Amino acid sequence: MSNKKASVWTSIPFWRRSAAWVTGVASVLLIWLTFDSISQINMGTESDLKNGIDKRVPAATVINYKIGYAMDAKRGHEVPTIGEKQLFFGKEWNEEDAKNLLHLGKLTSQSKNCMNCHTLLGNGAYYAPDLTKAWLDPAWKDGGPMQGMTGKNSVEEAISEFLQHPSQYPTHARMMPDLKITKEESMGLVAFLKHMSSIDTNGFPRNFSKTDEQFKRGGSNAH
Amino acid sequence: MLFESMTDVVPSFFAWLNQGPLTLTIFLHTVIILPMFWIYASEKKKLNKEKGLD
Fold first, then answer.
1. Which CATH number characterizes residue A112's domain?
2. Number of inter-chain CB pairs under 8 A, A vs B
3. DSSP codes of every residue in A181-199
């Protein structure tokens, strides 16, 4: 018996040390990853926007800029682009007002439970269209069917009008119910949607029609 | 390509780690699996030593 080699596989200390090692390394990596994610999803500032510094989540004042969506060959998907200045509801919003408007929009989206039917940044349902990039939807742009239907002449006015009286505008096989959204709330929601469309989501949602041409050829807006 | 240049918005260690499945696999094997060979060897050495004393 004494000549027989010792078996490590039946040794309790071996399993204890292995388990401690795996758990320890995984914990360190996950804690590190958590703080890394927190720093990456921090909102940018007004000066980042002015200096063209890319942040995943731009400042609230991004609502004063034109948002585009362009293919990034290197990354292999579309990324939001922040272009020249663009009036939002006919004016330029200062930092505080933009923040408050965005906050009102966020609270409204929660109180009206948009996620019960829609998807926002990957959270929610697919009963109704994905709203992550809804601001960029060609249907809301000049000449698009949604803007034409509301009789307004800007994307924000058209979406705002639709949100206040959704049951007046037949859009989808499943129509949006009238949620009694006020004018202020609808403006907040539009700001919330515009800001959300400017967030770099690594190309999510993947099946979103990027251009008006693609949309006219029968593309999808992740509906 | 196993290693690509950084394409993430904010370059970080985890962005590098997520470039492809192999980078993650090689990294996790290096920090978790390889040291476990050392744990095995050291436990074996300790057990053999105890056996020798018996």
1. 1.10.760
2. 54
3. --HHHHHHHHHHHHHHHTS
pLDDT tier at A97, thresholds 50, 70, 90: very high
Domain housing B45: 16-49
Average pLDDT score over residue span B28-52: 92
Whether A17 and B48 lie within 8 Å, measured CB to CB: no
In chain B, how many domains are there? 1
The whole-model pTM stands at 0.81
Residue B7 lies in a domain: no
Which of A8, A21, A75 is opposite residue B44, by nearest beta carbon?
Answer: A8
Q: How far apart are CA A221 and CA A203, in angstroms?
A: 13
In a domain, B3, yes or no: no
Tell whether A6 is within 8 A of chain B (Cβ): yes
What's the pLDDT tens digit per position in A111-156? 999 999 999 999 999 888 899 999 998 889 888 888 999 999 999 9
Domain-embedded: residue B26: yes
Per DSSP, which regions of A109-174 are E strands? 119-120, 123-124
CA of B51, closest CA in chain A: separation in Å? 7
pLDDT surpasses 90 at A88:
yes
